[in-house]
Design goal:
three-stranded mixed β-sheet, mainly alpha, single chain, 60s Ribosomal Protein L30, Chain: A
Length: 318
C-alpha cells in the first residue's frame, strides 16, 4: 500500500511524531515542541515568575530562598544572608563570623578559660584547671579525690579518709579534720566549719545582716540601707563576747584580679570597722579578702556574678 505526501502528513499529525529529513531540522522541531510544553505549563500556573521582593534584598520572591532577610543585609544570589564560617548561623546573628561554633554559644566555639583542654561547656570547674576524670575539676594532690571533696587538698590521702593521710586528726571528733575545723577543740557543726552554733535568734540577725549588706558600685563604701541590720548584728556581738565574727570578702571575675583582691579585702575591712565603731571589741572580729578565687556561682551570667560579689559572715562560739 502506498501513501501519498498528504497521507504522510496526516499520520505525523495524529501520532505527534517529530522527525525530519536531517538532524538539524529534527533538533529544531524538538526545541519548538519543548517551548510549547513550557508555555502550556505557564498557562496552567506551574511557572509563575514575579517581580515582588518583600525583603528588599534585590532577589525576586520567586527565587528567594530566604524571603525574610533583615533589611540591609548582604545576600547570595539565592537571597540568603552570608554564612562565612559555614556553621549554619548567618553572619548577622553570628558573634564569631570567622569561626565555627554552636548556636547556643552565639556561633562562637566554646572557650577554655582555665586552659585545661576541656571546653567550658563540658567543664564543671571552668575557673580552675582540672583533669578529665573529674570533668575539669582539680585534684591538686593527685590522690584521686577532687579538691571540692578533699578535706586535705594539698596532702596525698585516701578516699575513705576524705582525701587526708592516715595521720590526719579530728581532735574534737565532730567529723571535721583539724586542718578544716575553725574550732578544733570544740564539737561543732559542719555547716559552721566545726564550731558550735549561735542561738537561733542571733543567727537570724546574722543572716539578715548578710542578706542586706550592699556597697556602692566598685567601692568599699557600705550603702546606708545596710546600716540597720549591721546595727542589730553589733548588738548581738556586744551581748555575746564569746561570739567571734570572721568576715570574708569576695568579688566576681570582672576586671583586674589584683584590683579585685584589693577590693575584697577593703570591703571586709569596712564591715569590720563599722561594727567596731558600734562598740564591738576588735578582738571579736577578723577579716580577709579572696578576690575572685572562690566563686560561689558561675561568672558567666549576671545573676551568678551578683552572688559572687559578697562578704561572707561566719560566727564561731568560744
Amino acid at each position: 500500500m502506498k501513501l501519498n505526501y498528504l497521507g504522510v502528513c496526516v499520520l505525523l499529525f495524529v501520532c505527534n511524531l517529530v522527525f525530519a529529513q536531517n538532524p538539524a531540522q529534527t533538533a529544531k522541531y524538538k526545541k519548538k515542541s519543548s517551548k510549547g510544553e513550557r508555555e502550556k505549563d505557564y498557562i496552567k500556573g506551574s511557572f509563575k515568575p514575579t517581580g515582588r521582593d518583600k525583603d528588599g534584598d534585590g532577589v525576586s520572591d520567586y527565587t528567594d530562598k530566604c524571603p525574610n532577610t533583615p533589611k540591609g543585609e548582604k545576600v547570595t544570589t539565592f537571597g540568603c544572608p552570608f554564612d562565612t564560617d559555614f556553621d549554619n548561623i548567618y553572619d548577622y546573628e553570628d558573634r564569631c563570623v570567622d569561626e565555627k561554633g554552636p548556636r547556643e554559644n552565639g556561633g562562637c566555639p566554646w572557650g577554655d578559660k582555665d586552659a585545661d583542654r576541656i571546653p567550658d561547656n563540658e567543664d564543671e570547674c571552668p575557673e580552675f584547671a582540672g583533669i578529665p576524670k573529674f570533668k575539669g575539676c582539680p585534684d591538686t594532690d593527685k590522690d584521686g579525690v577532687r579538691d571540692s571533696e578533699d578535706a586535705c587538698p594539698e596532702e596525698f590521702g585516701k578516699a575513705e579518709n576524705r582525701g587526708c593521710p592516715a595521720s590526719a586528726k579530728d581532735t574534737d571528733g565532730d567529723g571535721l579534720f583539724d586542718n578544716e575545723d575553725l574550732c578544733p577543740n570544740k564539737v561543732g557543726l559542719r555547716t559552721n566549719k566545726g564550731c558550735p552554733d549561735m542561738k537561733p535568734e542571733d543567727r537570724a540577725k546574722l543572716q539578715k545582716a548578710f542578706d542586706n549588706l550592699q556597697f556602692e558600685t566598685a567601692k568599699d563604701i557600705i550603702s546606708k540601707s545596710s546600716y540597720p541590720s549591721l546595727n542589730d548584728l553589733a548588738v548581738v556581738l556586744k551581748n555575746n563576747p564569746n561570739y567571734k565574727l570572721h568576715l570574708e570578702g569576695h568579688t566576681d571575675n570582672k576586671g583586674d584580679p589584683k584590683k579585685n583582691l584589693d577590693l575584697s579585702k577593703k570591703r571586709a575591712a569596712a564591715v569590720e570597722k563599722y561594727l567596731e565603731g558600734k562598740g564591738v571589741h576588735h578582738e571579736q572580729i577578723t577579716s580577709e579578702g579572696y578576690g575572685d578565687t572562690k566563686p560561689k556561682d558561675t561568672n558567666d551570667t549576671e545573676a551568678g556574678r551578683a552572688k559572687n560579689r559578697r562578704v561572707e559572715m561566719l560566727v564561731t562560739v568560744d
